[in-house]
Amino acid sequence: MSEARTIQSETVDELRQRLDCRFTEVDGIFTECLIEAHTYLSTTGVLEYIDQARVIGKLGRGVEPLLNFLQEWPAIAHQVGESALPSLASAIQKISKSPNGKSIALLIAHLPAITRRLPSQEQLDDYLRVAIYQMDQTSISIHGIHKTYASPSFHAFIESSAKILDVVTVGGLEKWVEYGIRNYSHHPEQQIQYFQLESADSLAVLKRQRHGTLLIDNTRQLELYTRSFWEDSLTLVPYSTGFNSIQMTPYFDEFGARLPDVYDDVHDIKGINRYRIALAHMLGHKRWSQAIFADNFSPLQRIAIECFEDSKIDYLICQQYPGLRKLMIALHPRPDEFACDPKTESCIRHRLSMLSYAILDEHH
Question: Which of 58, 204, 334, 359 is 20 to 30 A from 9 via CA?
Answer without folding.
Answer: 58
